[in-house]
Amino acid sequence: PGGKVSIPLKGHTEAVFAVDAVYQSDEPDLNLLVASAASDSTVRIWSRHGSEGEDLFLASCAQDCLIRIWKVCTKLKQLPETEDDSIKLKENIFTVKVSLESVLAGHENWVYAVHWQPSLSKDGSMQQPMRILSASMDKTVIIWEPDKESGVWLEQVRVGEVGGNTLGFFDCQFSPDGSMIIAHAFHGALHLWKQATKEWTPEVVISGHFNSVEDVKWDPEGEFIISVGSDQTTRLFAPWKRKEETEVTWHEIARPQVHGYDLRCLAMIGRFEFVSGADEKVLRVFRAPKNFIENFSNITGIPMEKLCSRSSDLPEGATVPALGLSNKAVFEGDMAVQPDEDEESFNAISNQYPEIYFQPLILTEPPPEDHLLQNTLWPEIQKLYGHGYEVFCVACNNSNTVIASACKASKKEHAAIILWSTTSWKKLQSLSFHNLTVTQLAFSPDDSFLLAVSRDRNWSLWRKQDSSESGPVFTCCAYTDKNTAVHSRIIWSCDWTPDSKYFITGSRDKKVIIWGQCDLSVITEGNELDSIKPCSTVLDAGDSVTAVGISRVLTPDGRYIVAVGLENGKIIFYTWKQSGKEPALTDWTTSVEIDNSQSHALAVKRLCWRHHAGRAGHNDENSSKWLQLASCGADHSVKIFNVNRFAL
């Protein structure tokens, strides 16, 4: 008594990954079936019989690509009770018999997961369906069922993903009624299939980054957002307008860039063009293909004429060469080429590995994961060479004519900001001032200033001079140094007020400060350095400030709306308005602090307000009470907040 019996079930030849068990009976506590998974790419099913008719079925899967089903039987022998000084002893002796019920071969790689379908309630009693779901590294998910006549386990349904640079599935689950299956893939994505009559079809499912999200931007019209992250992807999210329903839901509708380096920053250049920087020395510029604009029009309900005037010149889509990192444009003529069927052409290397993986699809709903991986890329139209280290931040001015960028730096010579023309893509200017990495760049809304903040705890302000033939020329007109600096740690973030009069800085020292005034008429030659001072008292945010953003729309009583993102994931809304000549503490009001359930779990990386009032996907007027704020964080999430400006 008290002794434990353990029985080794031998059969798998490689590491076992998963085991799942079910009872096969109408009554509880009876027949048990167990399924197991191992790295020998098998799934096995085991069963256990008792003298009371208990069946324990086990299924296992392993690295040998097989699934094994086992049956475990127990027999119970009772000995007569012995009476000895009123102590009654009762001994039970079990005999256990294990048999291998079935081996399911069908996967071609390690089987990572195996699950029985959950039991269903039928006619008042619980019934256990004999169905197993398995997920494998061979990019497939299989449903197995025993044949009704012979009882042999057969593959009933096989779903999965084709193409793309993925590695297969880690886990899978049945829905409670068995009509849907969900699988979780190597790249952090969820895949959902639903049973429609006999076919299983892919369904729309939530998606997002599977590593820290570093930057997020609204498009100038405020109809979609683009985010970049350390998962080496650039993703585009937009509201999906369904014909019958009023509810608007956000979905990933394109993945313009699937890269080989962690992405760090991006800037929109107009509506369907952006530049992104990754942990490499080049900046890459992307432009939307025709296929994206058509699908974007279908999903969001915005007519094509409004989106694009000359769509005929645009490429259909993009594809990545087998060994490259650059998205190549695919034009209409490229997709029709099919090699001849004769032997010589087939044996040519180029035909065994076709270059064109892009297939234009007409979408009316957000695309599934395998489509996102290869059919929604944007062609890369330019590379910008010039930085000596990994690109860290990038910004584009509001007239979409100049890009400013900076890279990681530990010396002054590398910390220079480079300005590029968006028409010729040539380098316009190199602005040298800071000694360490420039962490964020921001053009003023009227394009007359460029602001830079840096790891060296200072900011610098550059003023646009009269343009030369090649483009505008910027000169440094104000800065902080050792004597005038207020921040004592790295300045992570900065932004401008909509009237270009003030700018804001936020730092690791928990301080948020508004500086000004940057009025061109006030700043005369020579005394610029003295005229820009802190206009606000130092705001203590309570934790390291990693992101700041000022709304382009004011509160009804004319106050600036400031969002501050912290290292602990919190986002706090303040309003500010200058009252007198001297900064006063009463100029700040704390409006609202987003509660823990809605804020980020880790550092907020970027805050970006929609440029005008109203909500994307709703036909809100510009006078709307709603503003929208997009935020992204190190907790892998992108969030969009509806902010009621009348309540602030």
TrEMBL record:
The keyword Cytoplasm applies. WD repeats lie at residues 104-145, 206-237, 431-462, 484-515. One of its GO terms (cellular component) is nucleus. It holds the Pfam family WD40. Belongs to the WD repeat ELP2 family. Keywords: Cytoplasm, Nucleus, Repeat, tRNA processing, WD repeat. The keyword Signal does not apply. It is found in: Cytoplasm; Nucleus. This is Elongator complex protein 2. It comes from the Eukaryota. GO terms for biological process: tRNA wobble uridine modification. It comes from Ficedula albicollis (Collared flycatcher). InterPro entries: Elp2 (IPR037289), WD40/YVTN_repeat-like_dom_sf (IPR015943), WD40_repeat_dom_sf (IPR036322), WD40_rpt (IPR001680). Pathway: tRNA modification; 5-methoxycarbonylmethyl-2-thiouridine-tRNA biosynthesis.
